Amino acid sequence: xxxxxxxxxxxxxxxxxxxxxxxxxxxxFNTILLILTTAILGVSYAKYEGLNTLKSATQxxxxxxxxxxxxxxxxxxxxxxxxxxxxxxxxxxxGIVLIIPFTRKIIxxxxxxxxxxKDNLKNKNFIEGExxxxxxx
Length: 137
Prior knowledge:
Layout: H1 3-26, H2 28-62, H3 68-85, H4 89-99, H5 101-123
Helix pairs in contact: 1-2, 2-3, 2-4, 3-4
């Protein structure tokens, strides 16, 4: 089955289940208040972390260095902010994990290793050698 289709069906089911379970424990009003609070606090913290990432990227550019980590970190912070805005406890949990600098760094390094591993497998198909043009005399 297509992964995207599975996510589009699975995530709302998990969120609805968590809404029902948590709403039964703390009440409907408190559940809605908790969701709004995580969205507001999460987005404001994402903005703060985004500004820190922008400062770090600017410093790297001043040093004449390419801010690759900062670019990836900024994209991750954008995803985290979207996940925190979406109503739900599972998406909020994932957004919080992505927004914390320590866990974000671990996740980015994990995916960098996966990409490097795939890149190394692709490069094994090349044979290095030298050639010389031979012209007819």
